[in-house]
Design goal:
single chain; alpha/beta; FAD/NAD(P)-binding domain; six-stranded mixed sheet; four-stranded antiparallel sheet; about 25% helix; about 35% strand; binds flavin-adenine dinucleotide
């Protein structure tokens, strides 16, 4: 059995590895622009009272298991510093250094026998043996199953995906090094994320809306300071928001929080991120499309993906294991 996985961010990559563990042939297709949400993420691994409940209580152990199997992926414990308000805030089990992860993944995937196709997928169609995918270079690939793990690029390939799947634009400022006064293993986060509240009201928006959650995370030897999030009412990706305006809004929020940091900011980066407005990601078979699977819409991918990827891989490969029963029920397989 051959599986085509579209999207080489966190979701597609960890799923591809799990499918290889089950002995399946896997082709991973990624547009190769480097513009994944994963690349610019803080990588914080939160333990939260999410609807995924008990299942997601183990992300730290999952990252440790993955490192035992594959070697260093950037997992580390971290010092959490919360600001703003006296609510309890998120519980963070650790973080994954996303710069290290993104450098490691292509090497690891190739070593594990995943075929890597550095082209964007432009169309997918059912075929007599499963699914056919057309690449931007004109080539076609055939597989028995196809997984949409392309984050904000999923809906362009299959517009009938659930309207729960939405897109935000996220922006961060890059710093050359961790600035003075900020610990080199410290994750600075707001005690209340406005992004999550904005995501929850996405379906009710009349026009675009944006929020800034001041936060800072190490990123290799460098650091990322964020984050501005912009959400529009429509489901389609649309054009990116004006970068200069987004950057100015983010800088203004940082100036109010810590004016000493301004001189450390280098470039502004923004990227499209998929999320689901009710929190639960899209994981499982795509309705009315046999052999087509979805693995997208993660608001906290670093907690959710490592736990859900093995369950989805079991479902795709037809394996049934008792331990994953709760997960299968959850994802509807
Ligand atoms: C600033 C910021 C901070 C964050 N902080 C955290 C955090 O602390 N903790 C946490 O858990 N989450 C965090 N997140 C969210 C987290 O990054 C995402 O949940 C996660 O990275 C989603 O991974 P993904 O693989 O679904 O999507 P992506 O990483 O976006 O990957 C999708 C991939 O699909 C590819 N693609 C798209 N369309 C096509 C196509 N047509 N053909 C081929 N390839 C295609 C893209 O190139 C991309 O590589 C943060 C996000 C941002 C932006």
């Amino acid at each position: 059995m051959k599986v085509l996985v579209v999207g080489g961010g966190l979701a597609g990559s960890l799923l591809a590895l799990e499918l290889r563990q089950r002995g399946l042939a896997v082709a991973l297709i990624d547009g190769g622009t480097g513009q994944s949400a994963t690349a610019w993420s803080y990588g914080g691994v939160a333990i939260a009272a999410t609807p995924l409940g008990q299942l997601l209580a183990t992300p730290a152990q999952r990252w440790q298991q993955l490192e035992q199997r594959y070697g260093p992926l950037g997992w580390r414990s971290c010092d959490l510093k919360l600001h703003g308000g006296d609510s309890q805030g998120p519980v963070i089990a650790g973080r994954v250094d996303t710069r290290q992860l993104m450098a490691r993944l292509p090497v690891l995937l190739a070593a594990e026998g995943v075929e890597l196709w550095p082209w964007a997928a432009v169309a997918i169609t059912p075929s007599t043996t499963g699914w056919q995918l057309r690449l931007a270079n004109g080539e076609t690939l055939d597989g028995n199953a196809l997984v949409l793990a392309a984050g904000a690029g999923c809906r362009a390939l299959w517009p009938e995906l659930s309207p729960r799947l939405r897109i935000s634009w996220a922006g961060v400022l890059q710093l050359a090094a961790i600035p003075p006064g900020y610990g080199d293993n410290q994750l600075l986060l707001p005690s209340q994320f406005q992004r999550l509240a904005l995501e929850r009201r996405a379906a009710d928006l009349d026009g675009e809306d944006w929020v800034v959650d001041v936060g800072l995370a190490p990123w290799g030897e460098a650091a990322l300071a964020g984050q501005i999030s912009l959400v529009r009412p429509q489901l389609e990706l649309g054009s990116p928001p004006e970068a200069a305006l987004m950057e100015a809004r983010l800088r203004a929020a940082w100036r109010a929080f810590d004016p000493t940091l301004e001189r450390h900011f280098l470039t502004y980066q923004q990227v499209a991120v998929s999320f689901c407005d009710q929190g639960l990601p899209l994981v499982g078979p795509v309705p009315k499309a046999p052999g087509l699977w979805q693995f997208s819409g993660f608001s906290g991918g670093f907690s959710q993906v490592p736990v859900l990827a093995p369950i989805l891989a079991d479902a795709i490969s037809g394996e049934v294991t008792g331990g994953a029963a709760m997960g299968r029920e959850l994802i509807g397989v």
